[in-house]
Amino acid sequence: MKKPQWAEQWTEDDRQASIFRGVALGGGAEKYGAGVNSDEAQDFLNALWQKFKATGIATPDVTWITESLPSEVEAWVDIELRSKFPAPNGRPVWIDTPDWRFHNGEPMLYLGCVVSDMRNTDETKSKRYVYLFEGKSRSDLGGHEVVYKMSIQDSNSVGSSHYG
To answer: Given CB 3.0 to 4.6 Å as the disulfide criterion, which of 3, 40, 84, 133 pairs with 108?
Structure first.
């Protein structure tokens, strides 16, 4: 069976990174209610992959998918993610796929969720869940600038909308 063209262009590092992200981070992020599949998360995932490789703990391979994740990898991922996805008021309870927001390559602080009843244009009712996140950027004037972003999910539709 011939490999797809994209698979032929992958390096060994690409394959290992894909396994690491999919298996190790997928399960770990799920544990903390933190979706890491958005484009916003890519810089964070790349940095975490580089940090993991530098530890020399293990080399990702297909057994991570077909069998199980090595316990030392699971422990490392747990420690890393626990500190990276701050939620002082409790973890988000998503109604759809987790969709944590990122700013400047880092997960933002989860502040909370506001739920509102909506009447749609077709007169049906739904609930809208607005997940609010806060991040900081260095200001050109010195100090920091606060940035807010939202993920919005609706009980009658699939996916998330982003604001901010």
So the answer is: 133
